[in-house]
Amino acid sequence: MVIKLLSGNGMVAGLQIPVKIRLRMEIIREETKENLELTSFGQYYQKEQKAFLRYSEYLEPGTVHTMVKWDGNRMEIFRRGAIEMRMAFQRGAVLTGTYKTPFGTFLVKTCTKQMEFLWDAHQKRGDILVTYRFFIEEDEIGDYKMKIQFEEK
Question: CB under 8 Å, gap of 24 or more: what pairs does 95-99 form?
Fold first, then answer.
């Protein structure tokens, strides 16, 4: 796990930096591979030894507000709006979350293989990389690789 974040970061706690965000997701299910990409704008900030990245996604069913929270050991993603989801990641651990749909709320699990969160305070840019196996209830959905790059706009 790579952690480079808060020591000597040159940031005032709570100061929000407007950022351009590029999210790339690779999903492998059985023998198929799918790639998704999203570009958005949001804010990056640090508060109480944690880092936060907030942005909105504009999808067909409606707007989804996303917050990524990193505490140096664990990452959580909260999605609210047209999609309601909470997922947690910690390298080597199986963590649970929830996924709410019009048909009910489902238990989700992540088994995190790799996790990195880097922030360069001088260049005002960051990278997040998470590779994990994803489950809904007890069904294995696939292997996911999520990369988020963000930089001051």
Answer: 99/136
Q: What distances in angstroms separate CA 131 from CA 3, 74, 114, 124, one per listed residue?
A: 15, 13, 5, 24
Asked if 134 and 22 count as a contact pair (C-beta separation under 8 A), the reply is: no
Burial of 10 (0-12, 13-18, 19+ CB in 10 A): exposed
DSSP 1: -
- Dihedral class, residue 102 (left if φ above 0, else alpha if ψ from -120 to 50, else beta): alpha
Residues 6+ apart with CB under 8 A from 151: 19, 20, 123, 124, 125, 126
Residue with tokens 């989700």: 108
Separation of alpha carbons 75 and 91, rounded Å: 10
Query: In angstroms, how far apart are the furthest CA atoms of the chain?
Result: 47
Residue in 58, 60, 57, 92 with CA at minimum distance from that of residue 73: 92
- What global pTM score does this model have? 0.88
**50-102 pLDDT per residue, tens:** 999 999 998 888 899 999 999 999 999 999 998 899 999 999 999 999 999 88
